[in-house]
Known about the structure:
Elements (H helix, E strand, L loop, with lengths): L8 E5 L7 H7 L6 E7 L14 H10 L3 E6 L7 H11 L4 H17 L5 H23 L2 H23 L3 E5 H10 L4 E4 L7
Parallel strand pairs: 1-4, 1-5, 2-3, 2-4
Helix pairs in contact: 3-5, 3-6, 4-5, 6-7
Amino acid sequence: xxxxxxxxxxxxxxxxxxxxxxxxxxxxxxxxxxxxxxxxxxxxxxxxxxxxxxxxxxxxxxxxxxxxxxxxxxxxxxxxxxxxxxxxxxxxxxxxxxxxxxxxxxxxxxxxxxxxxxxxxxxxxxxxxxxxxxxxxxxxxxxxxxxxxxxxxxxxxxxxxxxxxxxxxxxxxxxxxxxxxxxxxxxxxxxxxxxxxx
Length: 198
């Protein structure tokens, strides 16, 4: 009797899009029973979060087809926005001056308004604090190492969830997928073209 190995895949995707067609195409009409996605367990309560812009429509697609969706991200392990900002500076995407300008704009916004709903004021203060903290992160140095450590903790959590639930398909950000593929045996790794980064 021949052994028929179950087909399992891990896909690396870009977070910057909500176009799920490339994942759907890559599955080529295959029936997926369980799909692990880079979503937190309470993602429905976090609807609209830009981080999950891609994964939420994909979850809906899988749910419509009867696939069990397994959220494998832990929001408690997500890195703070200040680290994201600092990493953008390190990568050369933005200048430190842009963070200083952002702080000035946010402070003026808070000073100049007569009334703003409490939620809006709290959000402005949160973003302001994030900008100020990013400067502290940059001053402390070692931004790349902190970024790598934070991602590694998330990937360890994702790996545990994947091993515990044994999904047919795993869809996560490209950098996570590359790292997970090094450890996951029995999964074919595909980095989709939308996630290409040389």
